[in-house]
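Box S1 | Example of a co-folding query
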Amino acid sequence: MKNVVLLGPPGAGKGTVASRLVQAFGFLHVSTGDMLREEVAKGTPLGELARGYMARGELVPDEVILSLVQQRVDAQKGVLFDGFPRTVAQAEGLERFTTVDVVVFLEVDREEVVRRLSSRRICEKCGAVYNLVTQPPKEPGKCDRCGGALLQREDDKPEVVARRFEVYMRDSAPLVAYYEGRGLLRRVRADRAPEEVFRAVAEVLR
Ligand code: AMP
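Box S1 (continued) | Returned holo structure for adenosine monophosphate
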C-alpha cells in the first residue's frame, strides 16, 4: 500500500477527502492538526506549547511536529498524511523515517478558501465537519451524528484565516515545486463538491 501526502491550502478540503479515503482504502490517517488539537484539549506539555502557535495561525516548530509524526508512523506503509508536511524541512525529515509514494495537491483559490473556512463548523464532541452553506446540519447548531454542539474553530476566525493563508504561501507552497521535482505531484481541482474531489483523488490513487 502507498504512503500518500495530501497537500493544499487551509480549507482545500484535506480533512474531508481524507476521511473518505480512510473509509474506502483503509489508510492510517495522520492529521497533525487533529493530533495537536487533541494534545491541546488534554492539556499536555506539547499541547501547551502548540496552543499559542495555533491560535495565531503560525506553524508549530518542525522538530516538534517531526517527533510527533515519527512516533505514530515509524516505517509503516499505507499512511495518509493530512496537513503534514507543511515545510520543506518537514518533508526532508519525513524522508528519513518513511517513503512518500504520491502527493495529491488539492488546488483551490484564496477566495474560495476564505469562504469555506468562515462557514465551517465542527462538532465539539465527535469532530464531524459541517459547512453552513454547502453542508448544513439538519438542525441548526446541532451535530447530525451525535447531537453535539457545533462550534467555529478559533483559527477559522477571519484575522487568523488571513494569517494561515500567508503562512501557507510562504512556508508550504514551496512543497509543490519540491514534490514536482521528485516526480510525485498529482494535481486535483478542489473547487468542486466533496464527492467529486474524492472520486478524482481515488482515481489518482488507483
Ligand atoms: P490544520 O488542522 O491542519 O489546519 O492545523 C491547524 C494548526 O495546527 C495549524 O494552523 C498549525 O498551527 C498547526 N499545525 C498542524 N499541522 C502542522 C504542521 N505539519 N506543521 C506545523 N504546524 C502544524
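Residues 4-108+165-205 form a domain with the Rossmann fold fold (CATH 3.40.50.300). The longest helix spans residues 158-172.
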